[in-house]
Structures are given as structure tokens and as C-alpha cells.
Amino acid sequence: MRLRFSKPYLAYYDRLPRNIRNRADKQLRLLLDNPCHPSLRLHKMQGYTNRWEISVTMQYRITFDIEGEEYVLRKIGPHDILDRP
Question: Which of 9, 23, 52, 54 could form a disulfide with 40 if both were Cys (CB 3.0 to 4.6 A apart)?
């Protein structure tokens, strides 16, 4: 699998504190190496056919879609950002 970064994801990422960006990078490496790792808390999001979520910290999440051999990163941020269109 590969990562593909959407423009919205990159915009949200750039606004995050450095420690959260570092943690997100670590979690994404873990997603590529072992998507079943418990610290990711990987799960399918309700109300979507192909939207998934992993934990960065207890407050921050990353959402993504799976398209073929790619994780298409959609958003990163606190839970409330995930509810925004």
C-alpha cells in the first residue's frame, strides 16, 4: 500500500502543532507496516461506504479512503473536524 495526500489533508496537517504532526507521521508509518496494530484503533466510519479512521492521539484522528493500493488521506484533526464536509 501507498499513501496519497489530498489537498485538504495537507492544509489541515500544516496547521497542526509539531508534536501532533510527528505523531501523525509515526502512525502513518505504522499503518503501512501493520494496519492491525492496536494503537491505530483502525475502524470503518459509520455512514460511509469506504471511509476509515485511525487515531493519532486520543484527541486527533486521520480519515482516509482505500482506493486500490492506496490510502487516500482525507482529513487530520480533532474529532469535530471529521464532521465537517
Answer: 54
Calculate the CA dihedral of residues 22, 10, 67, 36 and round it to 10 degrees. Answer: 20
Q: What is the pLDDT of residues 10-41, one digit of tens each?
A: 999 999 999 999 999 999 999 999 999 999 99
Q: Dmax of the chain from CA atoms?
A: 32
pLDDT digits (tens, 9 = 90+) for 53-85: 999 999 999 999 999 999 999 999 997 766 655
Domain region containing 7: 2-82
Instruction: Provide the domain count of the chain.
Output: 1
User: Tell me, what CATH number does 34's domain have?
Assistant: 3.30.2310.20
* 79's grid cell: 474529532
Collapsed DSSP state (helix, strand, coil) of residue 27: helix
3: burial class by Cβ within 10 Å (0-12, 13-18, 19+)?
A: middle
